[in-house]
Amino acid sequence: MQFEVFTLLPEVFPSYLETSILKRARERGLIHVNVHNIRNYTHDRHHTTDDTPYGGGGGMVMKPEPVFEAIETVLGIASPPSTPELESPLPIILLTPQGRVFNQSIAKELSQHSKIVLLCGRYEGIDERIRQNLVTDEISIGDYVLTGGEIPALILIDAISRLLPDVLGDPTGAEDDSHAMGLLEYPHYTRPPEFRGSKVPDVLLSGDHAKIDKWRREQALERTFKKRPDMLEKADLSEADKKFIKSLKSNIE
User: Lowest-pLDDT range, 74-78, 96-100, 160-164?
Assistant: First the structure.
């Protein structure tokens, strides 16, 4: 998987990309993250990437010229793009509060691509012509506003990379994550078996994998029922799951 990131603050990325799972994935060639400084595609001595908005108002707006030139140059897109290139499946994603809200399903969708472009917004926003004529998708990480798209871009890189083959040490590690199975994840315990009077549930020490699987599933259902009941409406539930949830509801009525 190749990520092409376009930003005004390239210095934000190395510290996170050079640690832990993402570092190992890059060293093994499983992911490639290329960070491009949009300022390098300006042609004035001040490297201007923003200007005041037409019509007045506060804040500054990212100019279209350096953004178009940066992405077109790196991707080898003709300027102006021809119709076949506009229909290319390559996602050119703008990180913006106006986009579709990112979730595990979108991460899985994007993990099917071999290359993804991430455009980090800044200031008051971007010139609308970038959105209309260059961007193919818009993604938000939630209903709030940040100072730029750099943190959202890292979130996408992290979430998508985890879903790629061999990135995690456990081949099935991502399958049981919260949201991956449509539920919040079950509780985890490790040594020691007792800590400050609190014991690990006996079932986890039993060695009975069928009972452990049943306990984990019920714990995931109960945790989701209590913390995120909205998720149950879309979850793929068995008849046993539905019966268990019904028992949870009866206990609070």
Answer: 74-78
